[in-house]
Amino acid sequence: RLSLGEQWQVFEGELASAGGSPTRPPKFTVRKQGALRGSRVIAHVFSRSSKSALYEIQGSYSKRCCAVYDDKRRKMAEIKRKEAAAGGVAFGSDVFRLIVLPEMDMADAMALVLLLDQMFSSRWSSYNA
Predict the structure, then answer these.
(1) 81: helix, strand or coil
(2) In a domain, 37, yes or no
(3) Which end of the chain, N or C, is less surrounded by CB atoms within 10 Å?
(4) TM spans, by residue (predicted)?
């Protein structure tokens, strides 16, 4: 769900009604980082109970080359372009690999991928990282 100020909220489970009203607080909130010169950070992920970032996402989602780092700067997940095993085969930007360490919840990692797609898609945003 899009909030004011380039901020998205991620909820666990399905929405309660057709109107999209969540029945519980968000699992986490993601804030899109503005384009700062020299910064590779594209978003910060906050849990509902903390004001400090739970995760930091760095890289370029439009190039499908980014990583999710935890608060101790450990790489927890990575998005990479899929490479062809045989020469001469090219995949589109919508074909990529998601590599997730066991310490990170796979559902959370996939939720972040879906959210990044909305955040940096030309139909949702004028800024593409």
Answers:
(1) strand
(2) yes
(3) N
(4) none
For 47, the enclosing helix (H) or strand (E) is strand 41-47
* pLDDT for the residue 5: 56
| HSE of 19, CA atoms in CB hemisphere, 13 A | 3
Structure tokens at 16: 């309660």
Distance of CA 5 to the CA centre of its chain: 16
2 lies in a domain? Answer: no
Q: Rounded distance, CA 63 to CA 70, Å?
A: 22
Q: Is 84 part of a structural domain of the chain?
A: yes
Band (48; pLDDT cuts 50, 70, 90)? confident
pLDDT digit string, tens, across residues 90-105: 677 778 899 999 999 9
Assess contact for 10 and 28: CB atoms under 8 A. Answer: yes
